[in-house]
Amino acid sequence: MTDLKLKLTVTMEISSVLAIGFCFLLLGNGAQSLSMEHQPYRTGFHFQPPKNWMNGPMYYKGVYHLFYQYNPYAAVWGNMTWAHSISYDLVNWIHLENALSPDDPFDINGCFSGSATFVAGGKPVVLYTGVDTMKHQVQNLAEPKNLSDPLLMEWVKSSHNPLMTPVDGIEPEFFRDPTTAWQGPDGLWRVLVGNQMDGHGWALLYRSRDFVTWTRSKEPLHSSTRTGMWECPDFYPVSVDGKDGVDTSSLDKSTKHVLKASFNDCDHYVLGNYNPVTDNYSVGTDFLANGSDLRYDYGKFYASKTFFDGGKKRRILWGWIQESDSTTNDIEKGWSGLQSVPRTILLSKTGKQLIQWPVEEIEKLRTGNVSIENKKLEGGSILEVSGITASQADVEVSFDLSNLKEAELMDPSWIDPQLLCSQKTASVRSNVGPFGILAFASKDLTEQTAIFFRVFRSNDKYVVLMCSDQSRSSLREGLKKETYGAFIDINPLHEKISLRSLIDHSIVESFGGEGKTCITARVYPKLAIDNQAYLYAFNNGTFDVKISTLNAWSMKKAQIVSSTKRRKPHLN
For this chain's UniProt record, which GO biological process terms are given (predicted)? Predict the structure, then answer.
């Protein structure tokens, strides 16, 4: 969260038990909001509470639990409480009563981000950031009241709270977001807490034998002079063979470790080698060093968290997707923010980056397939993908290119892909590209969100640029119509250029190069809503491209319902 406004992390892990976690918020005020039946921007298969701000899940005795920051009183930040929803499949959700309320001296000014860990006997415990009576950020512990209850309806805060406080030079406003804990070969638990020291980002390391008494290490696990405050840090291993996910406490030597930090409104990560005996973490290329800019997502995606799914041997990533309209719009519609579709995450074959893909469970919402094969797209042409509900869809497409030698020469000064996409929008023609899809398009194309590629020549290789262009996404004024971009590590001589986009009323999550580059966008069309939204494949380049395969599906609506009336905690 930015200034403690953007997240709550709940993560739980153990090799025999599933767990999920991430760091974010959703908001709302139902009393003054629009009717939910008349909201064209409310999503169909992304998690959202019925109203209010939101944050993170776990798996216990067959049930996924999503705990999230929730303001029971308004669609703006404040009165941060942990709401609680459950699922059996990561797709359909039931809202339960709130789990934690800010009603103790150590969290009276808000229950914010946290994490969870399964300790001895598979017992889930939660570390979370509270803001105390002095408005200092402190780390607290909570545990379920009844472990035999698979719904975990009631949580009890520890009598030892707070467990970690901002002392010894830690600034009390820069001390938050404890990670999932992991256990070393010495039996001690380790946890990281996000911090800013002398204006620079730190991951403070704490150790504990009993999960109650924590001692800070003299040195942080990692730090950077190139960044400010690290929010929602995450630290976990990934297998070097790229086949399966790995438990956080794994001592397998055939791994690299990912350190993720949220800063500058983006989720950045580095890859390195971790020694569990000395707690030394050495990275190959540090945050923002030597032009490096590894991110989970190059669009609207923040305060994320991963968990290890031991049942299916996969690591899953969740992220918080903010709105791109105004606070006034949030209050009017009665909610703010949503959760990304959960994504599997692996190390690439090259070992240089992570690969992401939507979890397979989301595919059960697919219906009404439309398929196109070996279709030539002439330069300057579009092709409507008809027969699906274009405002709520899943589309996969791959392109073959036969004129690569004619690609535009790459200028050495083009080092910023987002700036390049902003300058070379979908309407700017070049030889090879832009080509891709137009989502949320109106019939006359006055509104469109273009997700596309361009190919450039650079000495003896080719450079592939992926863009998400929101500049023409809506005729409405007062919106953030940003354009996002990233280079993809693809050799188009030997690989097809592929794209998958999940389209859901006001969000497009796009995965380029089979998940090598991800870009998420929020859009709010005025014309292209519900059944007035259209989907097109397009090629605005000079030379032809061929659609090798295109498959598109309408997506059924996920079931997200309330089982009980939410109780409102008292106002402080």
Answer: carbohydrate metabolic process
Do 328 and 34 touch, CB atoms closer than 8 A?
A: no
In the chain (572 residues long), the average pLDDT of successive 10-residue segments reads 36 31 45 58 87 59 82 73 89 92 96 88 92 98 94 96 97 96 97 97 98 98 97 96 89 95 96 97 93 94 87 88 88 86 95 97 98 97 98 98 94 96 97 98 98 95 97 95 96 96 98 98 97 98 97 97 56 38
CA 326/CA 480 separation, integer angstroms: 9
Phi, psi angles (nearest 5°) of residue 169: 90, 0
> For the purposes of burial, counting CB atoms within 10 Å of the CB of 310, is it exposed (0-12), middle (13-18) or buried (19 or more)?
middle
The single-letter DSSP state of residue 327 is H
Written as one string, the DSSP assignment of 343-401 is EEEEE-TTSSSEEEEE-GGGGGGEEEEEEEEEEEE-TTEEEE--SS-TTEEEEEEEEE-
**62: left (phi > 0), else alpha (psi -120 to 50), else beta?**
left
- Residue 37 is predicted with a pLDDT of 55
Count of CA atoms in the C-beta half-sphere (13 A) of 44: 21
Q: How far are the Cα atoms of 158, 237, 350 from residue 127, in angstroms, in the given order? A: 10, 21, 35
**Residue 440 contacts residue 525 (beta carbons within 8 Å):** yes
User: In the prediction, which pLDDT does 31 show?
Assistant: 37
Contacts of residue 157, defined as CB under 8 A and 6 or more positions apart, other chains included, come to 100, 104, 106, 107, 140, 141, 142
Question: What distance in Å separates the CA atoms of residue 397 and residue 372, rounded to the nearest whole number?
Answer: 9
Tell me the CA distances in angstroms from 322 to 48, 217, 480, 500, one per residue in order: 12, 34, 11, 21
How many Å apart are CA 217 and CA 201, to the nearest integer?
16
Q: From CA 228, how far away is CA 174, in angstroms rounded?
A: 10
d(CA 395, CA 376): 18
DSSP codes of every residue in 271-299: EEEEETTTTEEEESS-TTGGG---BS-SS
Note the pLDDT of residue 17.
29
DSSP string, 426-438: TTS--SS--EEEE
The pLDDT value given to residue 333 = 84
Contact, 536 vs 70, CB < 8 A?
no
Q: How many residues belong to the chain?
A: 572
Taking a C-beta distance cutoff of 8 angstroms, is the pair 293, 270 a contact? no
Check if the beta carbon of residue 124 is closer than 8 Å to that of residue 118.
Answer: yes
* Calpha distance 233→324 (Å, rounded): 24
pLDDT at residue number 50 = 64
pLDDT at position 9: 35
The pTM of the full predicted model, rounded to 2 decimals, is 0.92
Q: Rounded distance, CA 522 to CA 385, Å?
A: 21
- Secondary structure of residue 467 in the 3-state scheme: strand
CB-based contacts of 441, cutoff 8 Å, min separation 6: 390, 447, 448, 449, 528, 533, 534, 535, 536
